[in-house]
Model the fold of this input.
Amino acid sequence: MTGGDGQNNTPADRVLAVPCEGDDLLVLFALETGDRLGEVPVGSHPVHATTCRGRTVVATMGERAVTAVDASGEVTRVETGVLGPSHFAGANGELYVSCSAGDALAVVNPESLTLVDRVGVGAEPHELAVAPDGDRLYAGSRRDGVVDVVDTGTRERVGAIDAGPDARVQGVALAPDGSRGYAVDQRGARVVAFDPGDDSGPPAVGASICAEATIGADPYDLVATGDRVFVPGRGDGVVHDFDRELESIAVHDGFSRPVDIFEVAGDWWVLDASAPRLRSLDGAVLEMSAPGLVVTPVGERRLAVSHYDDDRVSLVDVEAGTVWTTDSPACPFGSVVV
Amino acid sequence: MSDDCGRETSDAASGPPIGGSDPSSPDDEGNATRRGLLRAAAGATVAGAASTAGCLSVSTPADVAVQSEVSGNVAHFVGPSWLADNREGAVVLDAHDPEQFREERIYRARRVPFDAITARESTDGVGEGDMPDTDAIAAAFGEIGVAPDDDVLAYGASVGSRVTRVAFALAAVGHEGSIRVLNGGLSAWNGRLGTGSRDSVSPVDYDPDPAASAWVDREWLADRVGTFNEDGPGLVDVRVPDAYLATVGSDALNDDHDRHGHLPGAVDVHWVGNVAGRRMTDPGRLVRLYEVEAELDRDEPVVVYGDDNVDPTSTWLTLTAIGFEDVRLYDGGFGEWANVEGDRGRYPVETATNVVVETEGSVGGDDDGGDFSCTG
Done:
């Protein structure tokens, strides 16, 4: 739950809030024009932002806390107790935060902006995925090679899928209907599929995967749809394309360092961290001013792009090209439209 | 030309003497010099000896004793002159293992039953975790005739963690008499020695007055997760940096631990930095280490922990000795924290942090096995 909120319009007063990791700031830009509106000091190493109950919440990896900004502009520090808040997921009315330098998920009440619990999971949790009904949350462990399953009603770890020996689980995703789970093993350059459980219960602790496939080197994230699974391999410049059982459909090559893939206006577009362009799987190319590391969908055709290495932020329209681009403080990362 | 001693030499005018080499000839002397240099470069010469080349360096027991005297505003650690002056009034406790104790000890010293003074009392029934078993510890001191108001001096092979555990155990049971540790250990003592079986001692009843302010338990720490070394207490992990950082392969250091890493916010200062050979590290260096480099506040509570409840007592006593006002031991240690059952979200472990204060200490003594936790 990072980035855009799925709204399809872009009123003139909307704001793009961009955590800038290098300067410990949340920087605000007018979404329509790119004008810089201000900045909020939010703590060390802000990386991702989300919105919840009228608050903008920022994960600050260099802190044992997240930072929330409410509608009145009041800034609140919410202690997590454990270093490295990195990713958010909303479930059961609460905000889950992976504490990636420890072995816990912090659970924050978005109304009171207080820590209500911590859930012990595999060490160095990173990405989170939530079942469609919100009853279960899945957290990948970069150190213990598991995908932990958390009951969001009781805030207890109720299961764990073993992704394999020496696995470093990075990306985690569920199919939209919640019938299948997927995880990226960065160290082994694999993607695995698992049974996320059903009404009869969650997967057991130590549950096995049900399928796996080799992918490009140094993978990071993945995208799962109803019938497809896409996994960029940063080291090999390829995007693997599978069906839901991880049978290969295609390997899309020719990228430099593909980091993300997203559907815009009916096409699948790939973000490349080493090339100043977006390229669709159909071969369409959209030039940008610099390579991007993170995108946030804005409406049906637009993307906010954080050019991490070039200290720049852009709004891009996949049909019309770059709408605006502007300089930012150092290392802009995962933005949110507010 | 001349050598470094100013003697005149020649590289051409004088050949080897007829009838064999003259070991005192300049050439042979030059070869020997070169050999010495090469040996030194290869590490064959111990540090210190090289710097006194040409001089015979001998340390006498009196030298060692003098080197072990403690100066400055340092509590608890005393040199051998203190013991010499107070031999009759102090109870001397030996922290060696039984074999070392029988081999050689300070005359009339009493051997501490080490297992007993590390005893823990589990309070999991009330959810607090392990803490010192003060009844068992007090009974152990009573068995060797230590009364609550005795002035005690403890020693070992050095000032390692075995002897500091004795000091902590006394503090934990609320010992009323003074508690001192012999700087330099047994080798610093050049007075009368004893050997063989232990001397007969009449047991006494030691009624403990537990000093709960000397330790913390798991719940005390869990309540303060997220505050250590920030707006809460100081927290020092005394283990080797690899264990603290949970580096690749470090799991083998403690393969009985479910989890690896450290308590959130802890700073790592390996306890051997407290010790220089058999003596405590220079107090000025210790103050820099803990106050400047580790950024601990001497006026605030500081908690120390290790894997067990022995090694961290070195840091517990060291900080106390240099003036920290409120130093506490987590007696359960990381072993308890890492293996806690149930809700581990309340007892999180961090891995991906890097707050290691480098130390240069080494622990002397003649114990085998390289286990610094048992060097005394």
Observations:
- The two ends of chain A are 14 Å apart (CA to CA).
- Chain A has a mean pLDDT of 94.
